[in-house]
Write a structure and sequence with these properties.
By secondary structure, the protein is of the alpha+beta class. It is 23% helix and 37% strand. It is built from 14 helices and 41 strands.
């Protein structure tokens, strides 16, 4: 330990006053210094205060003259120290601590754990010998560096056991994860072992990887082009409607099979629905086959696509693939009733029908005589208050979306004076928070630039139950007057757009983005919210209809009591039933006020479920179905892409090696001058008065002094 007392004055950058360092203590990698924001000679006043106070107390008091000399010196010294220390604390002294730490270089080893690594003739080597060599390399690097090991596929994991069973490969997510975890750390190098094949995320060559360290790649897999015919992709809708035909597009690739012919077939259960002969006329052959299938049964339907195996094919597992279609009973019908032809009509119809769940039927108000029960929503466009359609819609209780100056006879949550024919050109201002449905950031930004629409002039009166989505902006003034609002009352959900000129927004969307996606989002979300029927059941089970084989099968459940309050006291049980009618029982876990179930990963196939719960004397049950689809993307392309690995290493200042050259990496990293241990200094300022032991010392000295004087009759 080195102790030195320093008396120096230093001027700070940000303050006009100066500070003094009066004490510095150094011990190994820890440095202490004591500073005050006053000249160092102010400390002399502290000692002077202590001396004056002590002398006045002990040498001017005649009662203490009978004290033994050594006792007088002891008590006066104690009082001198206490008073001097308290005076010194008034100078607000600070303890400056500087801690020096060293950090070894971090070497990150990331191993591709996807199925494509072992989809070649060297699969036995990669499962055993290669893993042993990699573990040996990691052990050798651990002698000099801090080694962190990761595996990646469809997700990034810090597990060091490599099973090569993940269904997808996402290299870009690896870079994102490493940047999040190691930004600012002393990363010496990143070693990535992969075959260069990615089928999820973005191209890793263009990923922004901000860790300034070299990247080395280990080139795995086989680059030999083998004979193989493969079902590369099946394009289809997620659902279809009963009685309709739905399109399916099948993409077939073939390599090194020129002159051969194969047969593509599509079947459902035991019935063959489609066959077609495919002649391979090139060694790098690809073709697309489009067909139409009939939706004959409701529910989730499983279809099997098969490509006949040709002689000499290296991989037959990618010649078959299943896909699932959810066949529904029919689309929801929307009635669009207009007072007169208008450009808004076509804009609204196209926007609503962009969601294939909906079918729009248009009518003029004068000749509308359809029963309203078949419609999920009625859209009224500038229909007069005297029209029979207004009365019918009001009495039906069916949700309504009105566009134009709202009639007073229809409870829409906003009343607009109709005595004046004057209008305002109003732009749209979107509310910051809207509770009824989500608004994307893209749509929120787009709404700032949409053209003005014509709105009635007057003092609007809105009900307290209204939820405003858009306000009017008149000129540069953002008003609190509603432009688009919703009234979610229990009798009839309503929506209102108080303006004329929606079609302009659709044209602006196309002018800016060459599509109508944002305008369609605004209208379809409005329609979806209004047309959704309120579920008043006491037991609900919520889940996705389709999963991939690497997805967790998860369910949520809600249970309500007679007052329609969420409860979670009773147990909720669920049985999953596979295609062989075998049941798998589960019990939901309880959350704060609902239920959740993670059933894990299930094999590919169709499944049904039965859920039940008992609330008091009543038994409730729910039934449904879902599908688990195969994820065969790792089988589509098994030809390693070493070019990508080479470019990746070159871009980040590293190099590429092969599995039989793993020992080279040890030497390469050792020879680099930029991979070295770094030292960090951490500075910390603490008020001296915050030290508890200092308070204890002052209290102890005063207690000792009091005890001595008490014993000797000085009090």
């Amino acid at each position: 330990m080195i102790i030195c007392v320093i008396s120096r004055t230093c001027y700070t950058k940000d303050y006009s006053d100066f500070c003094s360092s009066i004490l510095m203590i150094t011990k190994s990698d820890l440095l202490f210094s004591l500073t005050i924001n006053y000249p160092v000679w102010f400390v002399l006043f502290c000692f002077l205060c202590g001396a004056v106070y002590s002398s006045v107390l002990y040498y001017k008091d005649k009662r203490l003259s009978e004290f033994p000399q050594w006792l007088l010196y002891t008590t006066s010294l104690s009082r001198f120290i206490v008073v001097s220390l308290i005076a010194f604390l008034l100078l607000s002294p600070l303890i400056k601590t500087v801690t020096k730490t060293t950090e070894k270089p971090v070497i990150i080893v990331a191993q591709d754990n996807s199925e494509s690594i072992i989809r070649n003739k060297d699969s036995a080597f990669y499962k055993k010998d290669y893993v042993e060599k990699l573990n040996k390399l990691i052990a050798n690097l651990g002698d000099r560096y801090e080694v962190k090991t990761y595996s990646f596929g469809d997700k990034v994991s810090n597990e060091s056991s490599f099973t090569f069973n993940e269904k997808q490969t996402d290299i870009s997510s690896l870079f994102d994860e490493l940047e999040t975890r190691y930004s600012g750390r002393n990363v010496g190098a990143v070693i990535i072992a992969s075959d260069g094949l990615y089928n999820k995320g973005s191209n890793p060559e263009y990923s922004q990887f901000d860790i300034k360290s070299p990247v080395y790649t280990i080139a795995l897999g086989d680059t030999t082009i083998k004979k193989d015919a493969v079902i590369a992709k099946i394009e289809h809708n997620r659902f279809a409607y009963l009685g309709n035909k739905f399109p399916v597009q099948i993409i077939v690739n073939a390599r090194q099979l020129k002159g051969n012919s194969t047969t593509l077939s599509v079947s459902k259960k035991e019935e063959t629905l489609f066959t077609q002969k495919i002649d391979v006329n090139n060694n790098t052959f690809n073709t697309s086959v489009t067909l139409l299938l009939d939706a004959k049964e409701t529910g989730i339907q499983r279809y099997h696509v098969k490509l006949a195996v040709l002689p000499g094919e290296s991989n037959a597992s990618n010649n078959e693939q299943d896909f699932f279609i959810d066949v529904r009973d029919g689309r929801e019908k929307i009635a669009l009733i207009a007072n007169a032809p208008h450009p808004d009509i076509a804009a609204l119809k196209d926007a609503v029908e962009s969601n294939q769940n909906y079918e729009v039927e248009t009518y003029m108000a004068d000749n509308f005589n359809q029963p309203l029960k078949k419609y999920s929503l009625v859209i009224l466009h500038q229909v007069n208050a005297s029209s029979k359609a207004i009365t019918d819609v009001k009495n039906s209780g069916i949700p309504v979306f009105y566009i134009g100056n709202p009639p007073a006879t229809l409870p829409l949550g906003v009343n607009v004076p109709s005595s004046s024919n004057k209008t305002n050109d109003a732009e749209a201002v979107m509310t910051k928070s809207f509770p009824l449905f989500t608004i994307s950031d893209e749509l929120r930004n787009f709404m700032r630039n949409v053209p003005a629409v014509q709105c009635p002039f007057g003092n609007y009166k809105s009900s307290t139950s209204s939820n405003v989505l858009l306000y009017q902006k008149i000129g540069i003034v953002e008003t609190q007057t509603a432009l688009m609002t919703f009234n979610p009352n229990s009798d009839q959900k309503t929506g209102l757009f108080i303006g004329d000129g929606l079609w302009k927004w659709r044209l602006r969307d196309y002018a800016e983005h060459t599509n109508h996606n944002l305008f369609n989002e605004l209208i379809t979300k409005t329609v979806q919210y209004l047309s959704t029927k309120v579920d008043k059941s006491f037991f609900r089970v919520l889940h996705k209809n389709d999963f991939y084989e690497n997805d967790m099968i998860e369910f949520d459940a809600e249970v309500y009591n007679a007052s329609y309050e969420l409860i979670n006291e009773p147990e909720v049980e669920l049985n999953i039933i596979n295609s062989d009618n075998k049941k798998f029982p589960f019990t939901f876990s309880k959350t704060s006020n609902a239920y959740h179930l993670n059933a894990g990963i299930l094999p590919v196939g169709q499944y049904k479920y039965e859920a039940k719960v008992k609330v008091g004397d009543k038994q409730y049950s729910e039934r449904g179905e879902f599908s688990v689809s195969a994820l065969q993307i790792e089988n589509v392309n098994t030809i390693a892409d070493h070019r990508l690995l080479y470019n990746l290493a070159k871009k980040h200042g590293g190099s590429m090696v092969y599995p039989n050259e793993l020992e080279k990496l040890n030497d390469i990293l050792e020879k680099r001058d930029d991979i070295k241990t770094v030292s960090y200094s951490e500075k910390k300022l603490t008020d001296l008065i915050n030290l508890k032991w200092l308070f204890a010392a002052i209290l102890g000295l005063l207690t000792l002094e009091w005890f001595i004087r008490k014993q000797n009759g000085a009090y």
